[in-house]
Amino acid sequence: MEISQQCVVALTWTLKDTLGEELDVLDEPVEFLMGGKDLLPAIEEALLGYAAGAKVDLQIEPEQAFGDFNDQLLFLEPRHLFPKELEEGQIFEGSSLPAGCNPSAPKEALYAVTDIYPEHVVLDGNHPLAGIAIRISMTVESVREATDDEIDQGSTGSGFFRIQPVHAAADGNDTLH
Q: What is the pLDDT of residue 139?
């Protein structure tokens, strides 16, 4: 079966930056719905027409991936507003930042704690890969028809590219996958 819209493709990959530094490795196949919200449009476009066993290499510029880095999404907030057990890398939804945080912080963004100082916390609303051109080497492990539920949801449910806020992360993992 060839990859087309509204099918499910299982992929493995190695993701690197343009300097060749490895950013992510997906050794076990993960299923994604084509034509839904699972994959970046540039990845979907590159996969169309391939079948299981295909190897596809692609470079994606920031504007096609996670956007350019926006320094307007960096916020310095008072440390006392956050829990004592705060750790670097924790993710917060903008809509649930503690009272007293900068009111101009967009509520729809997710914020990563990047630095913790005795008096301040640095929050970054950029995606961890914002501003980075990425090179992805993918292998198509399998292709199948999507179920009606997957098509209705627009996803296989992997949530692979979503960064989870602290209260929503079931396993405490807030990395890319």
A: 98
